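Bit of a strange request maybe. I'm writing a small parser for C-alpha coordinate strings and I need a real example to test against, not something I typed by hand. Could someone generate the C-alpha coordinates for this chain?
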Amino acid sequence: MNASGIINSIVDFFFPNICVVCGSKSDDHNISVCSPCLNKIEYIEQPYCKTCCQPLPDGGAHCWQCQKTKYHFDRVIAAGKYDGVLRQLILKFKEKDLLKTVLGDMLVSLLKKNIDITQFDSVLAVPLARKKEFKRGYNQAQLLTEVVCKKLGKQIIKGKLVRTKNTKPQFELTRDERLVNLNGAFEVKNPLSFENKNVVLIDDIATTCSTLNECSRVLRKAGANKVLCAVLARD
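Reply from user aminoacidic:
Good idea to test on real output. This should exercise your parser:
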Protein backbone atom coordinates (compact mmCIF):
# COMPACT_ATOMS: atom_id res chain seq x y z
CA MET A 1 0.00 0.00 0.00
CA ASN A 2 1.37 3.43 -0.96
CA ALA A 3 1.55 6.46 1.34
CA SER A 4 -1.75 7.87 0.09
CA GLY A 5 -3.50 4.58 0.77
CA ILE A 6 -2.07 4.39 4.29
CA ILE A 7 -3.21 7.95 5.05
CA ASN A 8 -6.70 7.24 3.74
CA SER A 9 -6.90 4.09 5.88
CA ILE A 10 -5.89 6.01 9.00
CA VAL A 11 -8.36 8.82 8.28
CA ASP A 12 -11.08 6.28 7.54
CA PHE A 13 -10.42 4.48 10.84
CA PHE A 14 -10.49 7.54 13.09
CA PHE A 15 -12.94 9.66 11.08
CA PRO A 16 -15.20 7.26 9.16
CA ASN A 17 -17.37 8.87 6.53
CA ILE A 18 -20.89 8.24 7.74
CA CYS A 19 -23.85 8.87 5.44
CA VAL A 20 -25.78 11.86 6.82
CA VAL A 21 -29.04 10.37 5.57
CA CYS A 22 -29.08 6.72 6.68
CA GLY A 23 -26.08 6.50 9.02
CA SER A 24 -24.28 3.79 7.07
CA LYS A 25 -20.64 4.08 6.00
CA SER A 26 -20.16 6.14 2.87
CA ASP A 27 -18.16 4.54 0.05
CA ASP A 28 -16.29 7.75 -0.79
CA HIS A 29 -13.80 9.63 1.41
CA ASN A 30 -15.00 12.96 -0.01
CA ILE A 31 -18.75 12.43 0.08
CA SER A 32 -20.76 12.04 3.27
CA VAL A 33 -23.66 10.40 1.47
CA CYS A 34 -23.76 6.76 0.45
CA SER A 35 -24.52 5.70 -3.12
CA PRO A 36 -27.84 3.97 -2.28
CA CYS A 37 -29.16 7.21 -0.76
CA LEU A 38 -27.94 9.31 -3.69
CA ASN A 39 -29.74 6.92 -6.04
CA LYS A 40 -33.02 7.65 -4.24
CA ILE A 41 -33.01 11.33 -5.19
CA GLU A 42 -36.04 12.18 -7.31
CA TYR A 43 -34.77 14.35 -10.15
CA ILE A 44 -37.11 16.59 -12.09
CA GLU A 45 -37.91 15.26 -15.53
CA GLN A 46 -40.19 16.58 -18.25
CA PRO A 47 -42.87 17.79 -18.29
CA TYR A 48 -42.10 20.81 -16.12
CA CYS A 49 -42.77 24.54 -16.34
CA LYS A 50 -40.34 26.15 -18.79
CA THR A 51 -40.12 29.24 -16.60
CA CYS A 52 -39.97 28.06 -12.97
CA CYS A 53 -39.23 24.31 -13.37
CA GLN A 54 -42.28 23.27 -11.36
CA PRO A 55 -43.18 19.67 -12.32
CA LEU A 56 -46.35 19.49 -14.41
CA PRO A 57 -47.80 15.98 -14.06
CA ASP A 58 -50.65 16.89 -16.40
CA GLY A 59 -48.34 18.33 -19.05
CA GLY A 60 -48.18 21.80 -20.56
CA ALA A 61 -45.45 24.39 -21.07
CA HIS A 62 -46.09 26.72 -18.12
CA CYS A 63 -47.62 26.39 -14.68
CA TRP A 64 -50.67 28.43 -13.68
CA GLN A 65 -48.58 30.88 -11.63
CA CYS A 66 -46.12 31.62 -14.44
CA GLN A 67 -48.92 32.16 -16.91
CA LYS A 68 -50.00 35.21 -14.94
CA THR A 69 -46.67 36.41 -13.49
CA LYS A 70 -43.89 38.39 -15.12
CA TYR A 71 -40.50 37.53 -13.65
CA HIS A 72 -37.19 39.37 -13.87
CA PHE A 73 -35.20 36.16 -14.38
CA ASP A 74 -35.20 34.28 -17.67
CA ARG A 75 -35.86 30.88 -16.14
CA VAL A 76 -35.23 28.64 -13.17
CA ILE A 77 -33.65 25.21 -13.46
CA ALA A 78 -33.76 22.76 -10.57
CA ALA A 79 -32.12 19.39 -10.01
CA GLY A 80 -34.88 17.68 -8.09
CA LYS A 81 -38.00 17.92 -5.98
CA TYR A 82 -37.74 19.19 -2.42
CA ASP A 83 -38.61 15.81 -1.01
CA GLY A 84 -37.06 12.64 0.36
CA VAL A 85 -33.28 12.35 0.32
CA LEU A 86 -32.69 15.68 -1.43
CA ARG A 87 -34.74 17.51 1.20
CA GLN A 88 -32.76 15.80 3.97
CA LEU A 89 -29.47 16.76 2.32
CA ILE A 90 -30.47 20.41 1.95
CA LEU A 91 -31.54 20.58 5.59
CA LYS A 92 -28.30 18.87 6.69
CA PHE A 93 -26.34 21.29 4.50
CA LYS A 94 -27.43 24.08 6.83
CA GLU A 95 -25.51 22.22 9.56
CA LYS A 96 -22.67 20.52 7.68
CA ASP A 97 -20.67 22.47 5.11
CA LEU A 98 -18.93 19.26 4.00
CA LEU A 99 -21.98 18.50 1.83
CA LYS A 100 -20.93 21.30 -0.52
CA THR A 101 -19.06 18.91 -2.83
CA VAL A 102 -21.81 16.40 -3.54
CA LEU A 103 -24.49 19.12 -3.81
CA GLY A 104 -22.24 21.42 -5.82
CA ASP A 105 -21.54 18.60 -8.27
CA MET A 106 -25.28 18.14 -8.61
CA LEU A 107 -25.59 21.76 -9.76
CA VAL A 108 -22.65 21.35 -12.14
CA SER A 109 -24.44 18.43 -13.82
CA LEU A 110 -27.67 20.43 -13.93
CA LEU A 111 -26.02 23.39 -15.65
CA LYS A 112 -24.17 21.20 -18.16
CA LYS A 113 -27.43 19.47 -19.05
CA ASN A 114 -29.50 22.62 -19.51
CA ILE A 115 -27.34 25.48 -20.80
CA ASP A 116 -24.26 26.38 -22.77
CA ILE A 117 -22.16 27.66 -19.88
CA THR A 118 -19.81 29.46 -22.30
CA GLN A 119 -22.65 31.91 -22.97
CA PHE A 120 -22.60 33.07 -19.34
CA ASP A 121 -20.07 35.51 -17.91
CA SER A 122 -20.24 34.93 -14.19
CA VAL A 123 -21.86 33.01 -11.35
CA LEU A 124 -23.05 34.41 -8.03
CA ALA A 125 -24.94 33.29 -4.96
CA VAL A 126 -28.11 34.58 -3.37
CA PRO A 127 -26.84 36.40 -0.27
CA LEU A 128 -27.87 35.14 3.15
CA ALA A 129 -29.07 37.37 5.98
CA ARG A 130 -26.08 38.47 8.07
CA LYS A 131 -27.47 37.06 11.31
CA LYS A 132 -28.06 33.67 9.71
CA GLU A 133 -24.63 33.58 8.08
CA PHE A 134 -22.93 34.57 11.33
CA LYS A 135 -24.82 31.90 13.28
CA ARG A 136 -24.27 29.18 10.66
CA GLY A 137 -20.71 30.21 9.84
CA TYR A 138 -21.26 30.16 6.07
CA ASN A 139 -23.73 30.85 3.28
CA GLN A 140 -24.66 27.51 1.72
CA ALA A 141 -25.46 29.16 -1.63
CA GLN A 142 -21.99 30.71 -1.67
CA LEU A 143 -20.35 27.32 -1.03
CA LEU A 144 -22.32 25.81 -3.91
CA THR A 145 -21.26 28.69 -6.14
CA GLU A 146 -17.60 28.15 -5.32
CA VAL A 147 -17.83 24.48 -6.31
CA VAL A 148 -19.65 25.34 -9.55
CA CYS A 149 -17.13 28.02 -10.55
CA LYS A 150 -14.17 25.77 -9.81
CA LYS A 151 -15.59 22.87 -11.82
CA LEU A 152 -16.79 24.99 -14.75
CA GLY A 153 -13.95 27.51 -14.82
CA LYS A 154 -16.24 30.51 -14.44
CA GLN A 155 -15.66 33.83 -12.72
CA ILE A 156 -17.18 33.99 -9.26
CA ILE A 157 -18.69 37.31 -8.15
CA LYS A 158 -18.70 37.83 -4.41
CA GLY A 159 -19.86 40.79 -2.35
CA LYS A 160 -21.49 42.68 -5.23
CA LEU A 161 -25.02 41.40 -4.67
CA VAL A 162 -25.77 42.06 -1.00
CA ARG A 163 -28.69 41.72 1.36
CA THR A 164 -29.42 45.15 2.82
CA LYS A 165 -31.88 44.16 5.50
CA ASN A 166 -32.83 41.16 7.58
CA THR A 167 -36.22 39.82 6.63
CA LYS A 168 -38.69 37.40 8.18
CA PRO A 169 -38.21 33.75 7.15
CA GLN A 170 -39.99 33.28 3.85
CA PHE A 171 -41.54 29.94 4.82
CA GLU A 172 -43.61 31.72 7.48
CA LEU A 173 -45.32 33.99 4.94
CA THR A 174 -47.94 33.81 2.21
CA ARG A 175 -46.94 34.48 -1.39
CA ASP A 176 -48.12 38.10 -1.25
CA GLU A 177 -46.41 38.63 2.10
CA ARG A 178 -43.16 37.26 0.68
CA LEU A 179 -43.13 39.88 -2.06
CA VAL A 180 -43.55 42.70 0.44
CA ASN A 181 -41.05 41.11 2.82
CA LEU A 182 -38.32 41.15 0.17
CA ASN A 183 -38.96 44.65 -1.11
CA GLY A 184 -35.64 46.51 -0.92
CA ALA A 185 -33.90 43.50 0.66
CA PHE A 186 -31.14 43.29 -1.97
CA GLU A 187 -28.75 45.76 -3.56
CA VAL A 188 -26.03 45.67 -6.19
CA LYS A 189 -22.62 47.11 -5.41
CA ASN A 190 -20.66 48.33 -8.44
CA PRO A 191 -23.39 47.89 -11.11
CA LEU A 192 -20.79 48.00 -13.89
CA SER A 193 -19.86 44.43 -12.91
CA PHE A 194 -23.16 43.25 -14.41
CA GLU A 195 -23.66 45.61 -17.34
CA ASN A 196 -24.57 43.60 -20.46
CA LYS A 197 -23.53 40.38 -18.69
CA ASN A 198 -25.25 37.00 -18.62
CA VAL A 199 -25.38 35.79 -15.03
CA VAL A 200 -26.09 32.49 -13.28
CA LEU A 201 -27.72 33.02 -9.88
CA ILE A 202 -27.47 30.11 -7.41
CA ASP A 203 -29.50 29.13 -4.36
CA ASP A 204 -30.37 25.89 -2.60
CA ILE A 205 -34.15 25.87 -2.97
CA ALA A 206 -36.92 27.71 -4.82
CA THR A 207 -40.44 27.75 -3.41
CA THR A 208 -42.36 30.74 -4.77
CA CYS A 209 -39.24 32.07 -6.57
CA SER A 210 -39.76 35.41 -4.78
CA THR A 211 -36.16 35.63 -3.55
CA LEU A 212 -34.75 34.71 -6.95
CA ASN A 213 -37.03 37.23 -8.61
CA GLU A 214 -36.06 40.12 -6.31
CA CYS A 215 -32.36 39.37 -6.78
CA SER A 216 -32.91 39.20 -10.52
CA ARG A 217 -34.76 42.51 -10.46
CA VAL A 218 -31.82 44.41 -8.95
CA LEU A 219 -29.38 42.60 -11.26
CA ARG A 220 -31.43 43.59 -14.29
CA LYS A 221 -31.67 47.14 -12.97
CA ALA A 222 -27.85 47.11 -12.77
CA GLY A 223 -27.70 46.21 -16.46
CA ALA A 224 -27.57 42.40 -16.53
CA ASN A 225 -28.61 41.08 -19.91
CA LYS A 226 -29.78 37.63 -18.82
CA VAL A 227 -30.29 35.99 -15.41
CA LEU A 228 -30.58 32.22 -15.16
CA CYS A 229 -31.40 30.79 -11.73
CA ALA A 230 -30.09 27.35 -10.75
CA VAL A 231 -31.23 25.63 -7.56
CA LEU A 232 -30.90 22.20 -6.01
CA ALA A 233 -34.60 21.76 -5.39
CA ARG A 234 -38.00 23.05 -6.44
CA ASP A 235 -40.68 23.01 -3.76
